[in-house]
Specification:
The chain is an alpha/beta fold and 346 residues long. It contains 11 helices and 11 strands.
Length: 346
């Protein structure tokens, strides 16, 4: 296991020689409890927690905080699987069961936010692996992270499939009072059979939509990232309609579709799963993803158009985002102008 390879820089970058932590600060633990049986936690003390997104990334943000590596959600399509190979860890079962925990993340973040070199840029969380995965229930890193961001009024966003985010509802409300925050919940489909096989470690889609509903009821706008839309398994018109209808009923402020993409590391694991569960689709996938990690533009546009049309039908989208209420003040009645008085006998 190459802990010295876990650095800020991408593969091939010379900065990778400066490790974020060394083997002398790694503690490996296992817990013989039902929720953590078969999972190994590698507790480390990181040297940096605010990471710059590579310039070639398609992401609309520049900085991230990731308190965990690996994810017990065990989503068969997860694009972050490749990152485990940097540690000589398996990108399949190893990604699902070997979890790196940056136990000093809250304190380290607070120090970095206080640095004069930090200029208060937006920080995104949950963009690599889920910061509200099962491990967070034990390690409780997010309360300290949210509190640090709140104390510095630093804008941030969270993307999650985890219902555990509701544990920190009061902290999120406090943060929303002093800075811009964005919460998105990932729900690619509501099909129960599909969920059980491709996202076995996640809360059910309806429970995630309960999160959206609860956040909305507490005045925190919450959008839904409809991701991934899985070709030939979750893209039928009836499935798309059912999913968007459920998202609308949850009170989501927006819905953003994202078609499945298969990067190296994730592609091999997903295709092995596909061959086991849906062998008749292997050839169709090989053709659809023949050009690389992303589905063809025509397919992506078709899914986006369908979802946007359904969103309009069910009344969700950017136009429904909450705004400050402005109650019009009625104009004062004009004073009557003095003039001749009409006499009456009554």
């Amino acid at each position: 296991m190459r802990w010295e390879n876990l650095t800020d820089g991408p593969a091939g970058d010379r900065t990778r020689d400066a490790a974020l932590f060394g083997t002398d600060v790694v503690t490996t633990r296992t817990f013989d409890t039902p929720e953590f049986r078969g999972i190994t936690f590698h507790e480390i003390r990181a040297r940096s927690i605010i990471n710059r997104v590579p310039g070639a990334s398609r992401m609309p943000f520049e900085w991230t905080v990731n308190p965990y590596r690996g994810c017990t959600h065990a989503c068969v399509y997860c694009f972050a699987r490749k990152t485990h190979s940097y540690l000589d860890l398996d990108t399949g079962i190893g990604f699902d069961t070997q979890i790196v925990v940056k136990v000093n993340a809250p304190d380290l973040l607070r120090r970095q936010l206080a640095s004069r070199r930090w200029h208060g840029d937006h920080i995104a969380m949950g963009t690599n692996v889920d910061c509200y995965q099962r491990a967070e229930g034990r390690y409780r890193l997010m309360p300290g992270i949210i509190s640090a961001l709140t104390d510095h009024a630093n804008p941030f966003s969270i993307l999650t499939k985890g219902t555990l985010i509701l544990r920190d509802l009061d902290l999120l409300c406090r943060a929303a009072a002093v800075t811009d925050i964005g919460i998105s919940v990932s729900v690619g489909f509501t099909d129960q059979e599909l969920w059980r096989t491709v996202e076995p470690g996640t809360p059910a889609p309806e429970r995630r939509l309960d999160v959206v509903r609860t956040l909305s009821e507490h005045g925190i706008d919450c959008g839904v990232l409809m991701a991934p839309v899985i070709p030939f398994l979750g893209d039928h018109p009836g499935q798309l309609r059912a999913t968007v209808r459920a998202i609308a009923a949850s009170g989501a402020t927006s819905v953003t579709p994202l078609v499945l993409h298969l990067r190296p590391g994730a592609r091999e694991w997903f295709m092995a799963w596909l061959g086991q569960h849906h062998p008749h689709l292997v050839g169709r996938y090989e053709r659809l993803y023949a050009e690389g990690a992303y589905a063809p533009k025509w397919y992506q546009r078709r899914i986006t158009r369908q979802v946007h049309e359904l969103a309009e039908e069910f009344g969700i989208g950017p136009s429904r985002a909450r705004a400050a209420r402005r109650i019009p003040i009625p104009e004062a009645e004009p004073e009557p102008v003095a003039g001749p008085t009409q006499l009456t006998l009554l």
